[in-house]
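note to self: dont lose this again. the chain is below, predicted strucutre after it. 101 aa total, dont forget to put it in the shared folder this time
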Amino acid sequence: MLGPLLITFNVSLLVLAYGISRLLQLTPALATAVSIETAMQNATLGITIGTLIAMHSPGLTSFSLAAGVYGITSYFVVLPFIFWRRRRAPLMQDAPVMPGR
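---
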C-alpha cells in the first residue's frame, strides 16, 4: 500500500516541479534539473525529520521508514524521467541556459 502511494507522490512532484518551472519561464534544461532535485531531495529531508521527531527511538521510525522507501522508489521514477529528457536534449542544445541570455 505504501509503495504505490509514494510512487504516485514522486511522479506528482516531478510533474508539478517541471510545470511550475516552465510557468516561471525557466529553460527546459533548468526545469528538468529542478524536477530531479525536487524528487530526490525529499527522501533525505524525510529521513532527517523522521529521526528528529523520534530522537529517542532506536532504529528507524515509521516516518523515516516511509522516507527511506520513498528514496528507493524515487530512483525508479526519476531514472525514466532522466532518460526521457536526455532523448530530447539534442533538440535543446542551442537553447540558452538562462532565459533572456
